[in-house]
Design a protein that fits this description.
The complex is a heterodimer. By secondary structure, chain A is α/β, with parallel strands linked by helices. Helix content of chain A is 55%, strand content 13%. Chain A folds into 2 domains: 116 residues, Rossmann fold; 64 residues, Orthogonal Bundle (Arc Repressor Mutant, subunit A). Chain A contains 11 helices and 5 strands; from the N terminus they run E-H-E-H-E-H-H-E-H-E-H-H-H-H-H-H. In chain A, strands 2-1-3-4-5 form a 5-stranded parallel sheet. Chain B folds into 2 domains: 51 residues, no CATH class; 158 residues, no CATH class. The chains are: A alpha/beta, B mainly alpha.
Chain lengths: 190, 235
């Protein structure tokens, strides 16, 4: 999964430079934000994972942004000295004098912290496989519950977990999965 | 009022060479090739297309995040409707059937159950796209036309459409990923070609939705407000 990084820096040369390093340092979707008046709206719409911003430019507005989007990591892009109190809000700081390698390492440390958390469990339990088998044979939730001696509620939970694990959200997709992985035989589908 | 980073005074051929997917936009506006070194404005005028609407739609295609579309009210709503109608026609009668032919060729005679399941998924998806677009053709567009002629009678409003207007490309994205992850086969030119088509079609569907969400809906909301205000003044 690639991370979304938003960059706010008024200097075109510095912005382009930092974006170029970011694009090469991680599986990242990097974009710039120019319209400061619409900053709040743009951030909510784009929902980036990381915000790289010049602290002198954004000032105390960063506190409000952090409050509205607590999940987003904020990296300060330092061109000059900045008040220490303000810096405590930031998760990391990049200096314009950092080498490309230092910047890459910093970005990787940050992206690693949330990629680990999002690692998807993709292994199906045997119960989930049974549910898939029933679903692709065309059984309704009620019928599956009866067949497997479980409550309808449990079946719904299983189906939800299957969708998350396989990233397949409909019966037609589950049928393809079930056939490829030999959970059902062609005769059973007739 | 910046609608697009391209201006009417830019050369049409430059725009296309920078963003080849603009070719799709052109054909839906009825603009053909062979225009030499004419500017976007000149080509549009000669073909009777509103250049601002053309550039707004181009913008929705080349910047998927919607940046560059600041003011939807300058677009010609008539022009947009005709564009969207031809776009629907392209997906339903050309693009999706074309992908299906390639898909069926690729699957061939073997692995019958699997082939059937894959085609079934695709056909279900096409039905979904069809009903999504038919709703727009039969409910939304007639409403917009009645609004434009001032003969709006039913109590429908574009906000109803805005709320339920789903991202039609999502299931195609899932389908593509299922094929990539699970379809057991050699990598062949036929499979690649079919997948390229799906990648392109998915992107084009997203741009199509973008035109509806970022241009049509805001323009209609403005028009509804304008008419409501006039009505209040009259009363």
């Amino acid at each position: 999964m690639s991370v979304k990084i938003a960059v706010i820096e008024p200097s075109f040369i510095i912005r382009t430079g930092i974006m170029s390093i970011l694009k090469h340092s991680a599986r990242a979707d990097v974009f710039e934000i120019n319209e400061m008046e619409e900053l709040g709206d743009l951030l909510l719409r784009q929902n980036p994972d990381i915000l790289v911003v010049n602290p002198s430019l954004i000032g105390v507005s960063i506190l409000q942004i952090k409050k509205e989007m607590p999940e987003m990591k904020c990296i300060a892009l330092l061109l000059s000295m900045v008040d220490n109190n303000l810096m405590s809000v930031y998760d990391e700081a990049i200096s314009v004098y950092d080498t490309a390698k230092q910047i890459k390492d910093k970005i990787q440390r940050i992206t690693f912290s949330f990629q680990g958390a999002e690692e998807r469990n993709t292994v199906l339990s045997s119960r989930e496989k049974e549910v898939i088998r029933c679903v692709v044979k065309g059984l309704t939730t009620k019928q599956i519950a009866k067949t497997l001696c479980l409550s309808a509620h449990t079946i719904i939970t299983h189906r939800r977990n299957i969708s998350t694990k396989l990233q397949i959200h409909n019966t037609a997709g589950l049928a393809i999965y079930a056939i490829v992985n030999k959970l059902v035989t062609p005769e059973e589908l007739e | 009022m910046m609608l697009c980073k391209y201006k009417e005074s830019d050369m049409m051929s430059d725009l296309i060479c920078d963003h080849y997917n603009v070719l799709l936009v052109m054909s839906r506006f009825g603009i053909g090739l062979g225009f030499g070194d004419k500017t976007i404005g000149e080509v549009c005028r000669e073909t009777g297309v509103d250049a601002r609407t053309f550039l707004a739609v181009v913008s929705a295609h080349i910047s998927p995040d919607g940046q560059g579309i600041d003011d939807a009210s300058v677009v010609s709503i008539e022009g947009l409707l005709s564009y969207l109608h031809l776009s629907h026609d392209y997906f339903l009668n050309y693009r999706l059937p074309g992908i299906r032919v390639k898909l069926a060729d690729m699957l061939g005679e073997n692995q019958e159950a699997l082939s059937k399941a894959i085609l079934h998924y695709f056909d279900e998806y096409v039905t979904e796209v069809c009903s999504h677009m038919m709703y727009e053709e039969k409910t939304v567009f007639p409403y917009v036309r009645s609004l434009l002629t001032g003969k709006q009678q039913n109590r429908y409003s574009i906000a109803v459409f805005g709320k339920q207007h789903g991202r039609i490309e999502l299931r195609l994205n899932e389908f593509k990923k299922i094929l990539i992850r699970f379809y057991p086969s050699q990598s062949t030119n036929e499979i690649n070609s079919m997948l390229f088509d799906i990648f392109n079609c998915e992107q084009d569907l997203a741009s199509h939705n973008n035109v509806e969400n970022r241009l049509l809906i805001p323009a209609i909301i403005k028009e509804e407000r304008r008419q409501n205000n006039t009505r209040e003044h009259v009363c």
